[in-house]
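Chain A, query sequence.
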Amino acid sequence: MKKKKKVQKKMSNKQKRQLYGFGLPIILGTILLLGVSYAWLQLTLHGTVTNTLEGGKLSLKLDDTKSLGITDEEALPKLDEVGLMQDPYTFTLTNEGNVESKYTIFLDDVPLLQGEEQLPNTSIKYNLTRNESDLGTKLLSSTVKNNKRVLDTGIIDPGGNYVYNLKMWIDEHVKSTDSGKIFKGIIHVVADQIPEPNSFASDDWLTIMGNVRTGNTSKYNVGDTREIEMTGEFGKQVLRIANKETPEDCKQTNFSETACGFVVEFVDIIETRQMNQNNTNVGGYPASAMHQYLEETIFKALPEELQNVIIDTRVISGQEKDQPDNYTSNDKLYLLSPREIWNNNDDSLGSKTRQLDYYSTVGVTTSAYDLAIKKFKTEATGWWLRSATNTNRSGFKYVVATGGPWNYYDAIASLGVSPAFRIG
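Chain A, predicted structure.
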């Protein structure tokens, strides 16, 4: 490649705002059809892993023939809103086989020419969408795992088709010492069959999700636990399988999915917190500050691999006084309800949910509830439920420190937070 002669140009104010206006070339190598220049698709077949997949065909196709890739040879550092306006690099992943596939998309380096110097990951921003779902705008350095850049991981069903759009630009906060450096990248996909389950504690989250989706959960038992590391002050936490059954009631549109399918809950309390800053239950759980906090803070503090396998859940919550109907929301994380623990009807939700398998198996009732006790650090502590009390407009149901049911506590009280979620 012939080097271009550098020309000094007077910078506009706009260029100065885009961090000094240094010319930083950024190139993303275009992926062509399977087997063509730089593109490859590695399939790892585990023929002896599972009898149910014997004779199955694993076949993924990586296609980006309709995309020109990303080439910005006179790049300037950009604000995120500017970088997001550029044309994307589009590639499609299609499962042409007859078995589910677990896949990982890597962004690898392309060898630089003599005299070229690599632009560091900390100087590059990217945005990725999958089937129009925005996976976020992040620094490229956030993708590095075991010295490899991992853009996305997931499971794709037979006949499934994922369309990805990737945008990349030089971060506005790039260091002046990175002027003149270059980035060249290439997409690399690794796919394999879903391994047979080993244990809830040891399997990776994609393996767990894949086996849950096929009903192959004999090694995952209600009550099994595993430890995770959350970000920030939450630190190490323990999760427990709380449910596996999906009775017919779960298929009804007016039935809460919160105790249906593969449900995982926190064994203990993450933190203590108010349900609302104001002493009100108007609007029920979906209108509470707690609801927003679980979705925006607690969820994002989970390991990214776990976030990727948590599915949306139809959550029906009990209403407050003078409210004629229950509330429905679609959530990643949610609090439990009285019936899901003690199998009682102590809220307006009533028969719109069921007792979780775990609490049913260990015999938790309104008169035997020791195994509903949860601790904050080392101390047994009361913890919030999602049901507003229907006797006033200020309280929510909760579990007392001894594990038993109680009428309600004012929304401004600080009680334990111990959510659940579903995988599938």
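The first helix runs from residue 13 to 17. The two ends are 49 Å apart (CA to CA).
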